Each structure stands twice: as structure tokens, then as C-alpha cells.
Amino acid sequence: MSLTVTQFKKDFKKRLHEKYAIEVEDASNVEWYGALGSLVKAYYSKSLRKTHKQYIEEETKQAYYFSIEFLPGKMLKSNLLNLGILDVVRDGLKSMSIELEDVMEAEPDMALGNGGLGRLASCFMDSAASCALPVHGNGIRYDYGLFKQRFVDGYQVELPDSWLQGGNPWEVRRENKAVEVRMGGTIALVPDNSGNLIPRYYNAKVLRAIPYDTHMVGYENGVVNNLRLWSVEIPVTEEGNYLTLEERQEVENITAVLYPDDSNYDGRQLRLKQEYFFVSAGLQSIVNYYLRSGQAIEELPEKVAVHINDTHPAMCVPELMRILLDEAHLSWEKAWNITVKVMSYTNHTLMAEALEKWPTQMVEEIVPRIYQIIQEIDRRFVADVSEQVGCDIANRTRIIQNDHVHMAHLAIIGSHSTNGVAKIHSDLLKNVVLHDFYLLYPERFNNKTNGIAERRWLQLSNEELSGVLDETIGKTWRKDPGALKLLEAYRKDKKVLKKIAQAKQHNKKNLAAFIKQEYDIEVSSDAIFDVQIKRLHAYKRQLLNLLHIVKLYLDLKENPDRHEQARVFIFGAKAAPSYDYAKTIIKCINEVAAMVNHDPDIKGKLKIAFLPNYNVSLAEKIIPAADVSEQISLASKEASGTSNMKLMLNGAVTLATLDGANIEIKDAVGEENIVIFGLTTEEVYQYYRNNNYNAREIYENDPTIHRVLNAFIDGTIPNISREGQEIFDSLVKYNDEYFTLRDFNDYVKGQETIAAAYQDTERWGEMCLMNIANAGRFSADQTVERYAEDIWHIEAVATEE
Ligand code: NBX
Predict the structure, then answer these.
(1) According to DSSP H, which parts of 230-352 are helical?
(2) What digits encode the pLDDT tens for the residues 702-727?
(3) How far apart are CA 727 and CA 702, in angstroms?
């Protein structure tokens, strides 16, 4: 949009007057933020209406991304960037003695997600709007997002995230789009006048679902899509729906708080209610919208695609069936045909403990009609498959097994597409984990390697590097991340390498100042900034990183004058509150940090900064300053990873196992520009097959590993008598589930390669450049375009910009 500084200042002052009755100079940053947020929303409201109208008039097919998590982070700067008014607003504010950065401080992170899965959903929303694709999000408006993390005596402490307290300028409550969701009670099927069996509900609870819309602004293209998040309310008054105080509380709990587990499935009733709540509300509103256009329900797949992001929204399958059967009165066959055409599903994990299986009794109790439909889907599936392929395969793939509903089976059987999130992950789905389903439905399986919103992860968070890119290769990369490839021509150009290195130095100094100010840790920007930022989980092996740090420490203690490349190890990681082992690792990292950071023998060659409360905003500060990207999960465990993509885009060199998208990163940058170590997936599977992994033997025969592990139990590392023993036992006594000891020496070698390369400035500079230049293929723009074409069958709309 076009906006002048003068006009902006006028608008901004007016907003402050209207909203807070205050002058610019008397307002706090919270008021500046509130006014600016609502002004920006007004700026894009015309585009919003235009996009909406265009979709209706052109009868555009639209896709709806159902996800129980969205993790957008802060929205102000991203909206300014995408509207093309970032500089005007920054200059306008400055002329009123306001720093945009100070206004941004007042915005809380919107953290309605745990990690990769939720952040991916938000990257897709940004990219879809920016590619003019008609894609909307559907999820839950939690009153409390992911907990805030503090460290007390090195332990993780969780505090509530009351992100809505100061008001949320981006959302719009859509009272008139509320729908009702039924839960509980019992069902009887009674014939109506024409003999159709119609379900009658007894004692069901009727909940009111209120949508709050947050708008997704495309990058300089005038497209504005919608992220619809549902909040529960108790219906005003309905006879027979009188609720006691406890019952009201129970209802309100449904959208109160995000489950903080990112890998273990938590089989609580409330979670199942959350899942059904947003699925039912979302599908009802989509069908209502569709029917208002006057089109026939039979044509639904021509105009609507529904995406199931992991299994949490898998009840989309029986819920759409319910709507088609009970409300549109279609036959089972017609309804099933439509449902399978509309639905598609993404799998995000191979870890068995993350797979959702709900006890049938619980499903029947909470969503009785849905349970009936699931039973019928299961019955027909078993009959078909047994007849056509055989009973064994039918029994292994059916939805209901051992009194549990297998949500992944439901999602695969009830949709036309199942995809993994990186090549190796999709291959493992086909060949191992979901092999039986692959035999039944080979055509349904496909890969969609994840991507990232490169605007947020480069333009917005790394202005310094963005400037260098503009000077070197022009500005096309800002719209087309593929154009980053143009940088490759400069791989030997010392001037360009120097500029990139200077941008990195600038960002490292900023991060160092932040770390000093917030956590009183002194770090030198001359050291390697080695970064591992992701959820804390045993399979991601933060412990491998820690073991190496302890080794470096012990080496330096033995020989304080040893010439060692200075390193700062930066961690950011939250542990699920119920995941004790992950919390133990946090405590150990913090205690090693306290020990190392204050030891004068180390002479500053080694520093550890475990920054608390890792979230999107902190990621935006860390990533531009990273030299090394730690992607060290045990091969075959990380479905894709996305911080690996963000870090390479910002010129960090990846130190990685051949896992998830690391493999594709290696292919993109070439072997000489990445450091690979560790077991391959095949080797890991071989250990499983032969059942011959022996961690104790490694501990007993490898003197380095022996010495490092002993440091956890012999008092070398203070204050971890319990935790150190737990770590030691997990590795030696319980045979090291994620082969940390097996990969240790190879990892150490990898770290040595990194240190040597870093000392050769030109070599290192070239590696950084090659990473930036080849990051374009991991743009989420490309990823959503593949989903659009191959899975959703939707097309971009015409735009004027
Ligand atoms: O999804 C992550 C994977 O671990 C990553 O490898 C992948 O890159 C990313 C995006 O595809 N999975 C993930 O973040 N899962 C969850 O957050 C999660 C949340 C709730 C739950 C299970 C998993 N019940």
C-alpha cells in the first residue's frame, strides 16, 4: 500500500486520541502498540474485504488448514513488512521520538503452539497469503499459550502465559459466525418422515463456539487470508442446558490452555474435547459458508479442501461425515466419497509414543455420534480390505484395535493424501511405519519437505544481512527466495565475503549485548556462536552437545594453555512439564554452565548461555547471530526439523546427522559446506534388528567417554548428585536409547572440523555464503505451492501488485 510519513503521523495521533485519549508524548509503549496495531489492521481491512469478495465472486476453491497449534510470534513488524510500510512507519515514529523496536517490545508473542509443528502452520499461513493462495487456518484461541520458562537454581519453572491480558489488536470477534458444538449425552437413531435415520441427542451439552479472526497479510500483493481461532462459551440460555458452577468451569476449560507436550500424546479427556471442539466448529462454519454460496453439497470437493495437520484434527473425517449424513442427508457412499476427496493429512513424527490412540470408551462418552460413525467407517474398511487383500492386513490397519481408536489410521483411511515432511521421513513412512497402508493406497503417499517463511526469518529478523544481499544481488530475492542462488557467483569474492562476515559480527555483538544485559553472561563476538535451539527431547540429543562441552572443559582444565578455538554454546529449549528426563538435562546444562562460565582457568575460551523462555522472538535474535547450527538428532528420529533451515538461511554452517531435512540441506549446499557425522538411518535400524547395541561396553573401553561420564557422578560437576546419576544411568545402565555414546567420537571430530574451518576466514566465509545462497529451496512459499498443486488442487488468485 502507499502511505506517506505525514499521513501516517496524522493517522497514528488520531488513533491514540480515539483509543486512549492521550497525546503521543504522554503514551506508554503499550499504548503506542495498541494504537499502531489497530491502525495497521485498518490499513489492511480494505484488502481483506477485497480478497474475501474475490474468493466469493470467482467461486475460488479454498483450503482450510486445521491445526491444534499455531505459533505466529509477534505480528506487528511482519504486517508492516508485508504491507510495504515498514520504513515509512519506522521513520514516522522516529520523527515523533519513538523507536519502532520499543513499540514492538510491548507486543506479546502469540505462542499457541509448542514447536516445529505449530510454527510450520504459521509459516504456511504467511506463505500462502504471500503466494496469493486461498488458504485459511482453523484452530483454538487458547486463553493461555505455551508456558513461560524461568530457571530457578538451574531448574525449569513454568509460569502461565496470559498473552491476552493487555488486549489483542489483531483479532476480530465474529459474534454472528458462532456455531454450536455438542458433546456428551447419548444418541438414538430414529426414523424421520422419509424413513432416514436421524440421530436424536439426549442430555448432550451444547457449547457455543465463537470465532476470533486474525488476518494473514500477504507480502506486497494485496491478499489477506484468515486464521480463525475458536473460543468456547456457554450458550446464553437454553432450556435443559442449565449448568452448575463446576460444569461451567469444565466447559470454559476447553479453550483455556494449550497442552505443553510436543511429543508425548496426553490421553486426557480435556484434550479430546479440544480436538472435537475446533474440528466441529471449523467444519460447520466452512459448510455454512459454502452452502450460502448456493452450490450443491455434492460439489463440496470442487470448492473446499481440508488439511489435517498431524492427527489432532483427525476427527475432521467423522465430523464431515456427520454433517453430510445427519444434516445434508446424503447416503453413506456419497458422503464417504466427498469426505475422502476433501481431506488430506500430514504426519509429523515416527515416534511411537506420539501416536494418538484414544480409548473407545472415552470417545463414546465424549462424542457418541462421532464414535458411531468411526465404528461404521471401521466396519466397512475391515469388510472391504479383508475381502480384497486379506484379514491380516485389515487387522493391522483397522481404526479400532484393542479398544482404542487409532487416529493416524482414521486420517489415512479417510483422506486422499498422506504426506511426510522430508524425503527420508516420507520414505520411512512408506517403507516401514505405514508400510501396510502404503500397500493398500500407494497413490495416497507423497512427500512435502517443510519450508520456512523466509520473510520473517531473513528480511524481518536480519536486516543487516538483507542489506548486504540487496547490494550484492539486487532485491528480487525478497519476493523470490530462489533468487538467493545469485549469491553463489560471489563465493570467491573477498569483498562480498567480508561484508557478510561483518553483518554476522554486527548481529553477534547485538546478541552478546543482550545476553550480558539480560543474563549477565559475558561472551565475546570473536568466539564461535554454536547454537542448538529446539524443544528439549532425548532424541534431539542436547545431551550429546553437553557431553562434548564437558570434554572441552576437562581438556582445558588439564591444559589451560591449550590453544583452543573460543566457543560460546547457546541453548534455547523448553521441556514438557511432565517430562522429567528432559528437565534433568536442563538442570545439568545449567550447572555445567555455572561451573564453566566462572572458572578462571578457562580464560573465556568456553562459555555456555542457556537462554530461558525460548520462543519465536528469541529465535529471531539468536538465529542471525549463529555461526554453527546443531542438528544432531539420532538418524531416523527427527521428521524434518525447521530451525536447520532458518539457521542456514542466516549463514550458519550446519553440524548434522543424516536425519530429516539435514539430508536435503547437504544435497543443496554440497558436502564441503556442511559437517556430517554419526550413524545413518540404515545403521540405526541394523542395531535394532540385531539387538546388539552395548553402551556399557563403550563406556568401559573408551577412556574419553569414561572420563566425561564420570564427571556427572563424581562431583566434578557440582549440584547434580541426583541428576548426574540419572543421566549416567540412562546412558550406561539403561543402554543409551538414542545411541549418544556411539555417535560421540564422530561428533567430536565434526566439532574439530568446524573449529579448523572457522579459523580459515575465507574458507568459512565461503561456507556461510553457500548456505545462504542455497536456502531458497527451503522457502515455505515453494512448499505451500506444492501442497496447493498436488494435494489441495487450488490455484493462486490474480493480484494487482
Ligand atoms: O514437526 C515437529 C517434528 O518433530 C519436526 O521434525 C518437524 O520439522 C516439525 C514440522 O513438521 N513435530 C512437532 O513439533 N510436534 C509437536 O509439536 C507436537 C505437539 C503436540 C503433540 C504431538 C506433537 N501432541
Answers:
(1) 245-252, 269-292, 300-303, 316-322, 332-342
(2) 999 999 999 999 999 999 999 999 99
(3) 18
Provide the mean pLDDT of the chain.
Answer: 97
User: Is 174 among the catalytic positions?
Assistant: no
d(C-alpha 424, C-alpha 636), whole Å:
8
Matching fold, domains 59-74+109-450+784-791 and 454-778: yes
Residue 556 has pLDDT above 80, yes or no: yes
Q: How many CA atoms lie within 13 A of 619 on its CB side?
A: 29
Kindly indicate the confidence band of residue 237, based on its pLDDT and cuts at 50, 70 and 90. low
pLDDT at 49: 98
Give the per-residue pLDDT at 241: 58
Supply angle C-alpha 604, 605, 608, rounded to 5. 80
Closest-CA residue, ligand 1 atom 5, reads 641
Q: For the segment 173-191, what is each residue's pLDDT rounded down to a tens digit?
A: 999 999 999 999 999 999 9
As a whole number of angstroms, the distance between CA 754 and CA 631 comes to 14
* 255 among known catalytic residues: no
Q: SS3 for 605?
A: coil
C-alpha cell belonging to residue 451: 519450508
Can you list the alpha helix ranges (DSSP code H) found in 573-650?
A: 580-597, 616-622, 643-649
Cell numbers found for residue 154: 538451574
Count the alpha carbons within 13 Å of 524 in the hemisphere toward its beta carbon.
Answer: 11
The upper half-sphere exposure of residue 114, i.e. CA atoms within 13 Å in the direction of its Cβ, equals: 19
The answer to whether residue 706 is catalytic is no
Nearest residue (CA) to ligand 1, atom 9: 116
Instruction: Give the Å distance between the CA of 261 and the centre of ligand 1.
Output: 10
Name the helix (H) or strand (E) containing 33.
Answer: helix 29-57
Summarize pLDDT for 330-381 with one digit per residue, the tens.
999 999 999 999 999 999 998 888 889 999 999 999 999 999 999 999 999 9
Confidence tier at 240 by pLDDT (50, 70, 90)? low
Rounded to whole angstroms, how far apart are CA atoms 2 and 626?
A: 35
Who lines ligand 1 at CB under 6 A?
A: 114-117, 120, 261-263, 265, 348-349, 354, 421, 450, 638-642, 660
CATH number, span 454-778? 3.40.50.2000
Grid look-up 572443559 returns 553
CB atoms within 10 A of CB 178: 17
Domain 59-74+109-450+784-791 has CATH 3.90.780.10: no
Cβ(436)–Cβ(391) below 8 Å? no
Q: Where are the domains of the chain?
A: 59-74+109-450+784-791, 454-778
Task: Tell me the C-alpha distance between 651 and 465, whole Å.
Answer: 9
Nearest to 442 by CA among 417, 407, 473, 462: 417
What is the per-residue pLDDT for 239?
A: 60
| Ligand 1 atom at shortest distance from the alpha carbon of 641 | 8
Among 262, 535, 636, residue to substitute to test ligand 1 (most atoms within 8 Å of Cβ):
262
Predicted confidence (pLDDT) at residue 276 exceeds the cutoff of 60: yes
Provide the angle, in degrees to the nearest 10, between the axes of the packed helices 463-473 and 494-519. 170
| CA end-to-end distance (rounded Å), the chain | 9
C-alpha cell, 187: 444418541
Q: 498 CB contacts (<8 Å, ≥6 apart)?
A: 765
Distances 501 to 461, 464, 643, 651, 764 between C-alpha atoms, Å: 17, 11, 21, 9, 9
Residue 485 annotated as catalytic: no
Task: Tell me, yes or no, if 535 is annotated catalytic.
Answer: yes
The DSSP bridge partners found for residue 201 are 187
